[in-house]
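Hi R.,

As promised on Friday, here is the backbone we talked about, encoded as structure tokens. Could you run it through your design pipeline when you get a chance and send me back a sequence?
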């Protein structure tokens, strides 16, 4: 198995429309990732967390996820859902997504075959990377193509 990651995507005002489904379908079809779990939550204005499984979406929302191939296996347990749900602003909905990075599997396999192992794997947000790059300024060894 390649590296596995998760993501919580919040939609303020519970305006989730399924518009992310085509992008998910594309990365699955290209074998960039394999979806391992996908679930949805709503956080009420009062802060209560409501768990919604993919098959429990209304038919219009569910139809947009039809092209997303992959076996969704229920990796998120109730504790995970509650903990991750608390990161979602009240009055919002969220998609909780776990995927395997298939693009990294050949490198992972080569590292293991060489007797190595991954000891740290962190995701850096785009905003943090942009701030860091701005702080160091333009580099003379980087040229525009």
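Update: got your reply. Pasting your designed sequence below so it's all in one thread:
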């Amino acid at each position: 198995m390649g590296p596995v990651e998760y993501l919580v995507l919040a939609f303020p005002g519970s305006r989730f429309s399924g518009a992310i489904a085509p992008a998910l379908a594309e990365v699955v079809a290209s074998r960039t990732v394999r979806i391992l779990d996908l679930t949805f939550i709503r956080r009420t204005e009062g802060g209560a967390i409501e768990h919604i499984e993919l098959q429990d979406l209304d038919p219009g929302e569910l139809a947009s996820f039809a092209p997303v191939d992959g076996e969704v296996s229920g990796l998120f347990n109730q504790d995970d859902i509650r903990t991750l749900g608390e990161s979602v602003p009240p009055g919002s909905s969220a998609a909780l997504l776990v995927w395997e990075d298939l693009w990294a599997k050949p490198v992972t396999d080569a590292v293991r075959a060489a007797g190595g192992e991954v000891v740290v794997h962190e995701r850096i947000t785009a905003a943090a990377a942009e701030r860091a790059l701005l702080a160091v300024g333009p580099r003379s060894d980087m040229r525009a193509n």
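One thing I noticed while checking it: The two ends are 35 Å apart (CA to CA).

Thanks again,
M.
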